[in-house]
Amino acid sequence: MYSFKFPRLLLCLWLITLLSLTSSTESAPTYSAHYCVNTTLFTANSTYQTNLNLVLASLTSNSTDNSGFQNASAGGNTPDEDVVSGLFLCRGDVNTTVCQDCVTTARQDLLRRCPLNKVAIIWYDVCLLRFSNQSIFATINEVPGFDLPGSQNITEAESDRFDDVLASAMNSLATKASNSNSGKKFATEEDEVTSSKKLYSLGQCTPDLTVSDCYRCFRSAIGDLPTCCTGKQGAAVVLPSCNIRYEVYPFYNITSASPILPPLAPPVELRDGPVSIFCY
Ligand SMILES: *[C@@H]1O[C@H](CO)[C@@H](O)[C@H](O)[C@H]1NC(C)=O
Ligand SMILES: *[C@@H]1O[C@H](CO)[C@@H](O)[C@H](O)[C@H]1NC(C)=O
Ligand SMILES: *[C@@H]1O[C@H](CO)[C@@H](O)[C@H](O)[C@H]1NC(C)=O
Ligand SMILES: *[C@@H]1O[C@H](CO)[C@@H](O)[C@H](O)[C@H]1NC(C)=O
Ligand SMILES: *[C@@H]1O[C@H](CO)[C@@H](O)[C@H](O)[C@H]1NC(C)=O
Ligand SMILES: *[C@@H]1O[C@H](CO)[C@@H](O)[C@H](O)[C@H]1NC(C)=O
Ligand SMILES: *[C@@H]1O[C@H](CO)[C@@H](O)[C@H](O)[C@H]1NC(C)=O
Ligand SMILES: *[C@@H]1O[C@H](CO)[C@@H](O)[C@H](O)[C@H]1NC(C)=O
To answer: How many angstroms is it from 42 CA to the middle of ligand 6?
Structure first.
């Protein structure tokens, strides 16, 4: 019942011109992508709008809890009244302040971009925010999503080694993050490609998923890599329920992501490129 694989194949040709996932968490959060479901709209000043505002207000006011995840719902008081469900997820390595800032920015931005949509989602580099008139809590969603291949290629000479290290890092992340009992379904990996090159990777599910749904979502995200991102030194696949990313530089806060003492943070790297959004 949870198979959304077919719609994933119908790639929607909606391109956004800029997407940057930066390693900076000190400045304002960076917009990545959004999706408004244009087939289900509400009317201005309706009960839906009131309930949506309640949900978003509750999510933004409650993001002080440090799990980096929150859900809320409102409505459903009569058989005709839609339930409005909402949730946010912050990247596992960011603190409450950064999380709250991101969710607050995302809320304003999402309402501006999808003003009358019952169903919408927005991703920033360090958070996602979504709402729907269907229950979205504890439900695996693999669409809509986007791929982001990096601009730098791996060299021919290192490609076999890189692919092996990447494949094993992805498997390890999927297992570690889905089985994590830290309250976040989040994991990072640091693997040596060569003596002078490391692969840094990150995987996260919304923590409301079961271990098996989280693992399944990762398999789906990882399964996109050969199509979008073969030969790249960095890439991300971002879905509503989970995301993965890898780079040859540390793009997350290693100190907060792991208990081991880290090397110094690297310079922020910005990456631009077209993004394809998968449709519902
Ligand atoms: C949260 O993280 C940001 C960015 O790393 C940092 O500037 C800020 O001081 C941190 N806030 C707290 C309360 O730790
Ligand atoms: C939905 O409608 C908005 C506003 O008209 C438009 O900008 C956006 O491209 C549409 N999205 C999709 C996925 O069709
Ligand atoms: C909705 O309410 C706002 C503020 O009360 C008002 O400015 C606006 O005209 C209303 N829109 C509709 C469609 O009723
Ligand atoms: C936070 O959420 C709880 C329900 O989980 C709600 O009762 C409370 O009012 C919210 N806090 C604020 C400040 O809105
Ligand atoms: C939110 O999440 C809790 C579990 O943390 C769940 O029991 C509850 O039903 C959800 N609440 C709403 C309002 O969706
Ligand atoms: C969501 O809204 C659409 C359009 O108004 C409606 O067709 C659909 O039945 C609603 N979904 C739920 C679960 O209520
Ligand atoms: C990477 O490889 C692609 C396809 O093989 C090529 O089009 C592109 O120019 C290369 N990029 C760089 C930065 O070398
Ligand atoms: C990384 O996280 C640690 C521990 O949470 C925090 O003290 C530090 O300020 C963070 N560094 C950056 C660059 O965000």
So the answer is: 10
Band of pLDDT at residue 104, cut at 50, 70 and 90: very high
Region label for 191, one of left (φ > 0), alpha (ψ between -120 and 50) or beta (otherwise): beta
Q: Which CATH number fits domain 27-132: 3.40.50.970, 3.50.50.60, 3.30.430.20, 1.10.1040.50?
A: 3.30.430.20
Residue 180 to residue 256: CA distance in whole angstroms: 15
Predicted structure pTM score: 0.84
pLDDT above 70 coverage of the chain, percent: 81
> Taking residues 183-205, what's their average pLDDT?
96
Mean of pLDDT over the chain: 85
Indicate the CATH number for domain 146-247.
Answer: 3.30.430.20
Residue 151: exposure state from Cβ atoms within 10 A (0-12, 13-18, ≥19):
exposed
- Residue in 45, 46, 111 to alter for ligand 3 test, most ligand atoms within 8 A of Cβ: 45
Amino acid occupying residue 255: T
The ligand that comes nearest to the alpha carbon of residue 97 is 1
Instruction: Tell me, using a 6 A CB cutoff, whether residue 132 lines ligand 5.
Output: no
Ligand with the closest atom to the CA of 155: 7
Which residue is listed with tokens 């009131």? 50
